[in-house]
Amino acid sequence: MASNQTTTTHPQELKVLSFPVNNTDIERQTSLEEIPEKEFDYAGRAQWLRAAVLGANDGLVSTASLMMGVGAVKQDIKAMILTGFAGLVAGACSMAIGEFVSVYSQLDIELAQMKRDNRKRAGENNQPKEEEDSDKESLPNPVQAAAASALAFSVGAMVPLLAASFIKEYKVRIAVVVAAVTLALVAFGWLGAVLGKSPAVRSSVRVLLGGWLAMAITFGLTKLIGSSGL
């Protein structure tokens, strides 16, 4: 007599259905998980920020000091304005030429180093075209640096010039120039600190004290020399 036999399936014999996974999706997900959030590089602002802040400060302090020095011995508004304008033009040209020469020297050094690196890579592996273009784009631009310095200097120099242009009363004119320069010094110090992510109060106080000291020394020495009859 035949008996019914029950067929038992072992776990090892079970076939698990698997679906293919898209490798592109896995790579994309892995890359998104591994790449951290990119932080802004504030150090990259160093070159143009230095030129802009220093140029504006130089224009403000040097022009105001010249006007204060002339104002110490001459109360005529025309003499004061002409002195400030001459200081603006001369200072802007000086800043532009100095920045142009400095950045051009830096450009020559970096180009020479780039040529040496390219010759070294030529014996190993060819450098990709994209990498060469990226290297060239990162090089400093002397013309842009010179123009930025001249413009920043002119902006700073315009503050005391505009403050003194429409005030004929001598003492009032001196007070207005000092007040306008004080506000501009604080603003430039604060702006440079904010853009560079540095302490704003410390930067503003440092710039303000330096500007006051320059104007006081120029005014005092010119007054001393003028009173001696030289």
Automatic annotation (TrEMBL):
<feature type="transmembrane region" description="Helical">
    <location>
        <begin position="77"/>
        <end position="97"/>
    </location>
</feature>
<keyword id="KW-0813">Transport</keyword>
<keyword id="KW-0408">Iron</keyword>
<dbReference type="GO" id="GO:0140315">
    <property type="term" value="F:iron ion sequestering activity"/>
</dbReference>
<dbReference type="InterPro" id="IPR008217">
    <property type="entry name" value="Ccc1_fam"/>
</dbReference>
<comment type="similarity">
    <text>Belongs to the CCC1 family.</text>
</comment>
<feature type="transmembrane region" description="Helical">
    <location>
        <begin position="174"/>
        <end position="195"/>
    </location>
</feature>
<dbReference type="GO" id="GO:0030026">
    <property type="term" value="P:intracellular manganese ion homeostasis"/>
</dbReference>
<dbReference type="GO" id="GO:0005774">
    <property type="term" value="C:vacuolar membrane"/>
</dbReference>
<feature type="transmembrane region" description="Helical">
    <location>
        <begin position="145"/>
        <end position="167"/>
    </location>
</feature>
<dbReference type="GO" id="GO:0005381">
    <property type="term" value="F:iron ion transmembrane transporter activity"/>
</dbReference>
<comment type="function">
    <text>Vacuolar Fe(2+) uptake transporter.</text>
</comment>
<dbReference type="Pfam" id="PF01988">
    <property type="entry name" value="VIT1"/>
</dbReference>
<keyword id="KW-0812">Transmembrane</keyword>
<dbReference type="GO" id="GO:0005384">
    <property type="term" value="F:manganese ion transmembrane transporter activity"/>
</dbReference>
<feature type="transmembrane region" description="Helical">
    <location>
        <begin position="207"/>
        <end position="226"/>
    </location>
</feature>
<feature type="compositionally biased region" description="Basic and acidic residues">
    <location>
        <begin position="117"/>
        <end position="129"/>
    </location>
</feature>
<keyword id="KW-0410">Iron transport</keyword>
<keyword id="KW-1133">Transmembrane helix</keyword>
<keyword id="KW-0926">Vacuole</keyword>
<keyword id="KW-0406">Ion transport</keyword>
<keyword id="KW-0472">Membrane</keyword>
<protein>
    <recommendedName>
        <fullName>Vacuolar iron transporter</fullName>
    </recommendedName>
</protein>
<feature type="region of interest" description="Disordered">
    <location>
        <begin position="117"/>
        <end position="139"/>
    </location>
</feature>
